[in-house]
Amino acid sequence: MIKVTRLDHSELVVNAELIE
Fold first, then answer.
1. How far is CA 14 from CA 6, 19, in A?
2. What residues contact residue 15 under an 8 Å CB cut-off, 6+ apart?
3. Rg (Cα) of the chain, in Å, rounded?
4. Are 5 and 12 in contact (CB under 8 A)?
5. Is residue 16 within 8 Å of residue 7, measured between CB atoms?
6. Phi and psi for 3 in degrees, rounded to 5?
7. pLDDT in 10s for each residue of the chain, 20 residues
8. How far apart, in whole angstroms, are the C-alpha atoms of residue 6 and residue 18?
9. What pLDDT score was predicted for residue 17?
């Protein structure tokens, strides 16, 4: 799983969708 940070939370969400 990817840890979502407070700062890059939206950017990580996009990366999470690409991986998922």
1. 14, 9
2. 2
3. 7
4. yes
5. no
6. -85, 120
7. 566 566 666 776 777 777 66
8. 19
9. 74
